[in-house]
Design a protein that fits this description.
This protein has 501 residues and is an alpha/beta fold. It is 26% helix and 15% strand. The protein has 2 domains: 5-413, Alkaline Phosphatase, subunit A (3-Layer(aba) Sandwich); 422-501, Arylsulfatase, C-terminal domain. Strands 7-6-5-4-8-1-9-10-2-11 form a 10-stranded mixed sheet, sandwiched between helices. The chain has a 4-stranded antiparallel sheet with strand order 13-14-15-16, with helices on one face.
């Protein structure tokens, strides 16, 4: 059963209602003044793990610009992406609806190019900000509808789009083309490098020259970054919403050779990834160095944006948000998440609703409003950015009635904000999964497609690694959370959560 946003407020405890009113009252403090709406820069990494930034504990990968961003703003240490893989996570981000209500709930391709589209009836952040006078641009990986579908970026509120429409095409960093609005723009990769390939049968895996076949000339992330900067320059005199879903560090392991040099100099034990049999991406002679180098390249591209904001004197009136669409990839032979301690003490990787798959490193900078060097452990999620950004734009009256997000404005301003009543996630793939978090309690269901409805229960205050299932000791809590999970799940014909649907 669905409830409107207004109905949900009535049903929530008084402390939560008070927090929501505090959000409304805080709007003037967020915006400089009614005539100068702040710019919004929303950067989303692809498959970046919770501990893969220096500001979140990374020891081996260099991320100086993002670490600087953390020092200038706030770290959100209990922030959850929309879902465990790309498309459904981005759907939550764009529409403000959690996965039990969101239209797209899993990856689903629509050949020859694109993913299952969000329909015209869905309202995105971009559409809402566009109506408030923002110029809107998306640069990077889309994944919410093919080039001719209702879900294409230009039909979902974006004035400008440059990048990959399709997640599958984005597996290659050296593709034949990118999308420039609704047209192809050719890249100088002759031939283009596939995202999935193997070494030649007669190739020597110990010879670094055997891997030259997987190196291109025209690195797509750099092309995308150029267009990001051009968008900022072109719109410096008007409020803009810049959505920058970079494809880094999603595999394949593709990165220019010059980026490898600082990591090769460290002398890591770095055996080649040769792919071998089964599903995989392209081989790399030094996969650990390549993965680290890709993240550093992303960090540099983010630094380019931050530098330009300073040069154009826009930084003080721009909120910058950085996060990741899900956790570190589950393909451990290519990405050595243990070597990098990519999720640290968390359990699970991409594709899992355990913490490592959905808790993501998140940074927010808004000079003069978000305290420098601060952090918050308040539970929040991708669905919260839609109401938060509308509040920052001074447009809370434009909030859709059926969203699940709750504005983070009080938290960002350093004010007391009541805990989130609940945070719900479901994922019909990877065995079928469902989870809900209320306070420190987290209920998890796994292997639902096999008919399993048993609930695991974890106390996140004592057991962040989800190692001690205490369901047997707290049957009353399990029962209460099971009822809440049933309440938050709306059946989907396209993405059924079996055996519930």
């Amino acid at each position: 059963m669905r409830f409107s946003f207004a109905t949900r407020i009535i049903k929530l405890p008084c402390v939560v209602i008070a927090a929501m009113f505090a959000c409304v009252l805080s709007a003037p403090a967020l915006a400089q003044n009614a005539g100068q709406r702040p710019n919004v820069v929303l950067i989303v990494a692809d498959d970046l793990g919770y501990r893969e930034l220096g500001s979140f504990g990374q020891k081996l990968i260099r991320t100086p610009h993002l670490d600087g961003l953390a020092k200038q703003g706030m770290r959100l240490t209990q922030h959850y992406c929309g879902n465990a893989v790309c498309a459904p996570s981005r759907c939550v981000l764009m529409t403000g609806k959690h996965p039990g209500h969101a239209y797209v709930r899993s990856n689903k391709s629509t050949p020859p190019e694109g993913q299952w589209p969000i329909p015209d009836s869905e309202v995105t952040i971009a559409e809402l900000l566009q109506k408030q006078g923002y110029v809107t641009g998306a640069f990077g990986k889309w994944g919410l509808g093919g080039p001719e579908s209702s879900g294409r970026p230009l039909a979902q509120g974006f004035d400008r789009f440059f990048g990959y429409n399709c997640q599958g095409v984005a597996h290659s960093y050296y593709p034949a083309y990118l999308w420039d609005n609704d047209k192809h723009i050719a890249l100088n990769n002759k031939p283009p490098i596939p995202g999935h390939a193997s070494l030649a049968k007669d190739a020597d895996p110990s010879n670094p020259r055997s891997y030259d076949a997987f190196k291109g000339q025209d690195y797509a992330p750099d092309r995308i970054n150029e267009q990001v900067l051009a968008f900022v320059r072109a719109n410096k005199d008007r409020p803009f919403f810049l959505y920058y879903p970079t494809i880094i560090p999603h595999v394949a392991l593709h990165v220019p050779d010059e980026e490898l040099k600082p990591y090769l100099a460290l002398g890591w034990n770095d055996p080649p990834f040769t792919r071998g049999k089964g599903y995989g991406y392209t081989p790399h002679f030094t996969p650990r160095a390549a993965y680290a180098a890709m993240i550093s390249r992303m960090d540099r591209n983010v630094g380019n944006v931050l530098k330009l904001l300073d040069e154009l004197k826009l930084a003080d009136n721009t909120i910058v948000i950085f996060s990741s669409d899900n956790g570190t990839t589950h393909l451990g032979e290519e990405v050595d998440y243990k070597f990098f301690a990519s999720v640290g003490e968390l359990r699970g990787l991409k594709g899992s609703l355990y913490e490592g798959g959905v808790r993501v490193p998140t940074l927010v900078r808004y000079p003069g409003r978000v305290a420098a060097g601060s952090s918050s452990d308040r539970v929040s999620g991708f669905e919260d950015w839609l109401p938060t950004l509308l509040e920052i734009a001074g447009s809370t009256d434009a909030l859709p009635a059926n969203i699940d997000g709750i504005s983070l404005a009080p938290t960002l301003l350093g004010q007391q904000q009541e805990p989130r009543p609940l945070l719900y996630r479901e994922f019909p793939s990877y065995g079928g999964q469902q989870t809900i978090r209320v306070g420190d309690w987290k209920a998890v269901r796994q292997n639902m497609t096999k008919g399993n409805l048993d609930i695991e229960l974890y106390n996140m205050a004592d057991d962040i690694g989800e190692q001690d299932n205490v369901a047997a000791q707290h049957s009353d809590i399990v029962e209460r959370l099971a009822k809440l999970m049933a309440q938050e799940h709306t059946p989907s014909e396209t993405f059924p959560l079996k055996p519930l649907d």
